[in-house]
Amino acid sequence: MQLEPYSEKDGMRVWLSKQEQKQLLQYYEEEPQKQLAIELMLDGLRADEVPQISMNDFREMNTEQEGWMLHIWESKTDYRECPVNRETKRKAKMIKNMSDKHQGDSLVDSSVRTVQRWVNKASESLSEEDSDWGYVTAHDLRRTWATHTYWSLNGDRAREVTMAWGGWSDVQTFNQNYLGKVPDSVAIDVMDEADLR
After folding, report:
1. Which of 154, 153, 126 is nearest to 140 (CA)?
2. What are residue 29's phi and psi, to 5 degrees?
3. Deepest of 41, 60, 149, 175, by most Cβ within 10 A of its Cβ?
4. pLDDT tier, 100 (very low <50, low <70, confident <90, very high otherwise)
5. Secondary structure of the chain: what % helix, strand, coil (to 5)?
6. Residues facing 14 on adjacent strands
7. Is the pTM of this model over 0.85?
8. What CATH number has the domain bearing residue 43?
């Protein structure tokens, strides 16, 4: 877990490692709707976007390999598409089928505050083992996605692509509030490529 203090208020910005993301998801492994909400935020969605998502919002990419994009219609910024992994799509379909939802029905039947409380509850519980979890909020999941996505992309377009997928238009806001240090999971791969290990 990477922590950085806010300059203008109490608390910390947090970036979760891959293992910590798994821990958070496992906390709700018996509650698919809550787990889907967390997966969506770890795929770059804002907490207020999560209750809007239906099966109609998933778009299969027009490629030979399987890939999924998610339409985000109403957002703090304009319409955008954000990539989601196959597990997120699979879990969304399972929830739709288990609950007899229609294609256009919300997959997460909860308010934004409730979605945020789910993250807070899991973080509070996990903080009993590691006090750093006490700083984790729903917004840190989006922050984690932004940093992992940015540092995992190669080339000059990493910032442009990450900002487009995440719905940021201001580079300064993105750099100051979302972009963290190179995650260890990315650093280890780079170290192997450069024969530094």
Report:
1. 126
2. -65, -20
3. 41
4. confident
5. 50, 10, 40
6. 3
7. yes
8. 1.10.443.10
Give the whole-angstrom CA distance, residue 36 versus residue 145. Answer: 15
123-147 confidence digits (pLDDT tens): 999 999 999 999 999 999 999 999 9
Range of the domain at 106: 2-193
Which residues sit opposite 2 in a β-bridge? 15
Structurally, the chain folds into a number of domains equal to 1
Measured CA to CA, the distance from residue 142 to residue 41 in angstroms comes to: 5
Beta-bridge partners for 12: 5
CA angle 44, 182, 167 (to 5 degrees): 25
- 100 Rama sector, left if φ>0, alpha if ψ -120 to 50, beta otherwise: left
Cα separation, 113 vs 182, in Å, equals 31
Phi, psi of 107 (to 5 degrees): -80, -25
Q: Are 142 and 174 in contact (CB under 8 A)?
A: no
Opening angle at CA 43, ends 52 and 3, nearest 5: 120
* Burial status of residue 144 (CB atoms within 10 A of its CB: 0-12, 13-18, 19 or more): buried
DSSP three-state, residue 72: strand
DSSP 63: S
Amino acid in the structure at residue 4? E
Structure tokens at 66: 């399987």
138-152 and 184-193 are packed helices; what angle lies between their axes, rounded to 10 degrees? Answer: 10
